[in-house]
């Protein structure tokens, strides 16, 4: 066996015993996954995943960015090229490359997630290595060909109560519609991610806004028509895709609260493609405030995921497109950046805005104080580069003293890698129980309070924040 039952628990015996007791009460709770990037067509079509490389390597930017950093070309890992150029298609070869470089993942969460999936999903009990690569490939491949390993069966086996995907307003939600019409009882919902139509610097912005108008039956050459189209698509996402949230992946947390005349003039410029970088930033900021105002009307919880410098590597972007492991965190300001939005909606009790960060220095200095004051704000869980045991510990240590536990919202797996979902939620549950165990051992909490908190952090807070 690769997974130790006490993994991630404190090594101090007294704390470890408390952590074991807390974890025992939450380990089997259902998974609620309110934000992520799995493909809804998996659950609509319920086709077998093709092979181990297609499942674990080709779509996982955590996996291939590490190999790329050590000189392995993305082509050799089967990552599709934007120009349709040749890439490796032999899945066994791709798998062997992963095995050959397995040592690179020592000490990383990717290693924990993959080991967890190999063992708990596919029954693999030996470590991946060049010697075991073919055996493990054959074992996983054989599993994938049986009906118990189809997406819907795995969804049930993973004990997923709800899974949210993320779609652009230009998406027809055909897969979500198909899931509903199929009569399957798994709960897969969408989330509204308008970046392609609210960011003047997004590829194809002008054409995207035009398509938005066509889909919504609104004239999106005017500011009022554009806002109506967005309102219309939000409603569509709620009705057809079951959306309860929006998501915003902006480079910064900048917000603005312009007059209608100013916003309208800026929109015209964006449509003409003549905005400067500073004006594009201002426009995105205005749109965050517009989205918050719409959330007040339609009740969608708002998620802000700022601070990623996307597509940092132009060579990789040109050759392979977005989301290829070349996104790098930046320093992020919230206190000044969010003020226009908070001046407008910060005191609303019926609005939930969840703030995420890739800049851990903002936890104790900015995010916990903000969420510990404004009724509309919550702090989202440790995200992306910090979705790791150490990242989660730092998060609890830096957030709790000022924001408490109840201004947080449970865990998000935020993943494209379906089989890593149980692993990621298990890591979060274990790290939270370890943190709570320390508070109990230090006589800062009674154990019955810690037990209640463990359930809240695993299950109740996420359902409340996302209105599920
Ligand atoms: Zn995400």
TrEMBL record:
Biological pathway: Carbohydrate metabolism; pentose and glucuronate interconversion
Pfam families in the cross-refs: UxaC (PF02614)
EC number: 5.3.1.12
Domain of life: Bacteria
Top class in the EC scheme: isomerase
Signal peptide: none
GO molecular function ontology, one term from the record: glucuronate isomerase activity
Entries under NCBIfam families matching the protein: PRK02925.1
HAMAP family found in the cross-reference section: UxaC
Name by which UniProt lists this protein: Uronate isomerase
Lineage, opening ranks: Bacteria, Pseudomonadati, Pseudomonadota, Alphaproteobacteria, Rhodospirillales
């Amino acid at each position: 066996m690769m997974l130790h039952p006490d993994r991630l628990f404190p090594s101090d015996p007294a704390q470890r015993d408390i952590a074991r007791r807390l974890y025992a009460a939450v380990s089997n709770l259902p998974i609620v996954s309110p934000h992520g990037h799995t493909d809804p067509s998996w659950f609509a079509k319920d086709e077998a995943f093709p092979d181990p490389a297609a499942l674990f390597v080709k779509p996982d930017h955590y996996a291939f960015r590490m190999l790329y950093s050590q000189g392995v070309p993305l082509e050799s890992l089967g990552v599709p090229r934007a120009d349709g150029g040749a890439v490796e298609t032999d899945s066994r070869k791709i798998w062997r490359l992963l095995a050959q470089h397995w040592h690179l993942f020592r000490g990383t969460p990717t290693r924990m997630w993959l080991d967890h999936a190999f063992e708990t999903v596919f029954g693999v009990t030996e470590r991946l290595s060049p010697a075991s690569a073919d055996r493990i490939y054959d074992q996983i491949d054989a599993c994938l060909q049986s009906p118990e390993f189809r997406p819907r069966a795995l969804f049930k086996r993973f004990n997923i109560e709800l899974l949210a995907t993320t779609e652009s307003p230009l998406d027809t939600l055909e897969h979500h519609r198909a899931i509903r019409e199929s009569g399957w009882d798994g709960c897969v919902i969408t989330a509204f991610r308008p970046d392609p139509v609210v960011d003047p610097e997004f590829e194809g912005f002008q054409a995207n806004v035009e398509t938005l108008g066509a889909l919504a039956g609104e004239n999106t050459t005017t500011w009022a028509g554009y806002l109506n189209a967005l309102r219309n698509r939000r409603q569509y996402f709620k009705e057809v895709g079951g959306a309860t949230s929006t998501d915003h992946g902006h480079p910064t947390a900048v917000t603005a609260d312009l007059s209608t005349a100013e916003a309208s003039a800026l929109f015209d410029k964006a449509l003409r493609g003549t905005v400067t970088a500073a004006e594009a930033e201002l426009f995105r900021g205005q749109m965050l405030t517009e989205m918050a105002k719409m959330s007040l009307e339609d009740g969608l919880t708002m998620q802000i995921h700022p601070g990623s410098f996307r597509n940092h590597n132009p060579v990789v972007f040109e050759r392979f497109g977005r989301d290829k492991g070349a996104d790098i965190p930046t320093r992020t300001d919230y206190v000044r950046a969010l003020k226009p939005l908070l001046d407008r909606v910060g005191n609303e009790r019926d609005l939930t805005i969840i703030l995420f960060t890739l800049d851990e220095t903002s936890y104790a200095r900015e995010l916990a104080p903000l969420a510990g004051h404004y009724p509309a704000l919550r702090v989202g869980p440790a995200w992306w580069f910090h979705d790791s045991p150490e990242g989660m510990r730092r998060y609890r240590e830096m957030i709790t003293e000022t924001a408490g536990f109840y201004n947080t919202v449970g865990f998000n797996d935020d993943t494209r890698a379906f089989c890593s979902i149980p692993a990621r939620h298990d890591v979060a549950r274990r790290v939270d129980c370890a943190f709570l165990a320390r508070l109990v051992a230090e006589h800062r909490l009674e154990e019955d309070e810690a037990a209640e908190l463990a359930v809240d952090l695993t299950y109740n807070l996420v359902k409340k924040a996302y209105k599920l």
